[in-house]
Design a protein that fits this description.
With 439 residues, the protein is α/β, with parallel strands linked by helices. The chain has 16 helices and nine strands. The protein has two domains: 325 residues, Metal-dependent hydrolases (TIM Barrel), CATH 3.20.20.140; 43 residues.
Length: 439
């Protein structure tokens, strides 16, 4: 989810990379490593699991693409984005899941309308820039589009509220191009508990289990970012295809409930799944997590004071941050999460899901989509091999997507689309609500 832009803390370049290394030799070493990364990414695509540009296009421009030129860059806009075409090229991005986001409270017809609008703006963005983007629906599409020098553009739905508790709507979103769905967002739904929401069900309800089964039959990846630990375990037990976490990090490194605990990492590996590391500072550093517990309520307070004045909210919140500076989080700390997941789950089960344009603050050294080579260079510096870089960059995601396609082909031979309704399977639940946060 796109957060209101916040002040970027400026620190010396010497803070990024190996401790104590500075000056021209370090810069030359970084340039050589990044050149090696770029060669690797010409051979094998970098595929990011989660980017919220589409929500920004809705919030800032009302989905009117004639009001923004992604070819000219977006860093100088009044509300700067972290994504545009020049920086995607600079970052050597080969594939991107664009998020079609729906707020948790829109669990009904309004959510269905919004997700269709989000899918529409993604497709129109792709069509407007055919020299840069092409819609991808399969793993083979991603590889073909990457070979052609374009960014393979996939659609991921952020939040099961988008389907309005309807398997028919789920199927139609797949027909529209969506290839994963995050089962919920920051609040629990009628059929699934959120990590940050009230535990209404103790996991997936019977209808929630049917959603997972129908996603398997379609070939839509089950995304467990944002769900409770109990839902993680339920989905891993039920899903016949590998699951993903499209934008979550390691809980053992940063104790945020949105991150993945080690026992779940082991289960993800056993089931062939994938955890794609989120760059949000509050998911990377415990110090930043504690800061966010103060900062976001303050942002919410200011937003309520000026509900119709986005510029005033930005100004007031920036002033608050000047008086209460956020702790610095670095690229190296993001690499720590990648290292941890590799160590616990294995190299075949770790990827990148930045959450760019869904986060306001960023780690130093990972300010926007141009910076992926710097992160992968850090992994090379730590001893990762070129073959391992290819896996974390995108080959793991390609494998998971292929596996889901194979499972779908088998299941479609075995059973017809589910005709289950939530009223048939579940007793009505009455969510009492939870605070909607960012990211």
């Amino acid at each position: 989810m796109r957060a209101v832009p916040v002040l970027v803390l400026m620190v010396g370049l010497g803070m990024v990379g190996s401790a104590g290394v500075a000056g021209p030799p370090a810069q030359a070493d970084q340039a050589q490593l990044e050149a090696q990364v770029r060669q690797i990414l010409r051979e094998s695509p970098l595929i990011d699991g989660h980017n919220d540009l589409a929500e920004g296009l809705a919030d800032v421009f009302g989905n009117r693409l004639d009001r923004v030129d992604l070819r000219a860059g977006t860093s100088t806009l009044e509300e700067p984005f972290q994504t545009d075409i020049p920086r995607l090229r600079q970052g050597a991005v080969g594939g991107q899941f664009w998020s079609a986001f729906v707020p948790s409270e829109l669990d009904g017809p309004a959510g269905v309308q919004l997700v269709l609008e989000q899918i529409d703006v993604i497709k129109r963005m792709v069509a407007k820039h055919p020299d840069t983007f092409e819609l991808a629906l399969t793993a083979a599409d991603i590889e073909r589009i990457h070979r052609a020098g374009r960014v393979a553009s996939l659609i991921g739905i952020e939040g099961g509220q988008a389907i309005g508790s309807s398997l028919a709507v789920l199927r139609q979103t797949f027909a529209c191009g969506a290839r994963y769905m995050t089962l919920t967002h920051w609040r629990s739904l009628r059929w699934v508990d959120a990590a940050t929401g009230e535990p209404l069900h103790g996991g997936l309800t019977q209808f929630g289990r049917e959603v997972v089964r129908e996603m398997n039959r379609l070939g839509m990846l089950v995304d467990l970012s944002h769900v409770s630990d109990a839902v993680m375990r339920d989905a891993l037990a039920i899903s016949e295809a590998p699951v993903i976490f499209s934008h979550s990090s390691a809980r053992a490194v940063c104790n945020h409930v949105r991150n993945v605990p080690d026992d779940i990492l082991e289960q993800v590996a056993a089931r062939g799944g994938l955890v794609m590391v989120n760059f949000a500072p509050g998911f990377i550093s415990d110090e930043a997590r504690l800061y966010d517990e103060v900062a976001w309520p303050e942002h919410d307070r200011i937003s309520k004071l000026y509900p119709d004045d986005r510029a005033r909210v930005r100004t007031e919140f920036a002033a608050w941050q000047t008086a209460h500076p956020a702790p610095v989080v670095t690229l190296a700390q993001v690499a720590d999460h990648l290292d941890h997941i590799k160590r616990v789950a294995g190299i075949d089960h770790v990827g990148i899901g930045s959450d760019f344009d869904g986060i306001g603050r960023t780690p130093v050294g990972l300010e926007d989509v141009s910076k992926y080579p710097a992160l992968l260079a850090e992994l090379l510096r730590r001893g990762w091999t070129p073959a391992e870089i290819k896996k974390v960059a995108g080959q793991n995601l390609l494998r998971v997507l292929r596996d889901a396609e194979k499972v779908a082909a088998r299941l479609q031979r075995q059973r017809r689309p589910s005709e289950a309704h939530i009223e048939d399977l579940d007793r009505p639940a009455q969510p009492r609500g939870a605070v909607e946060h960012q990211q």
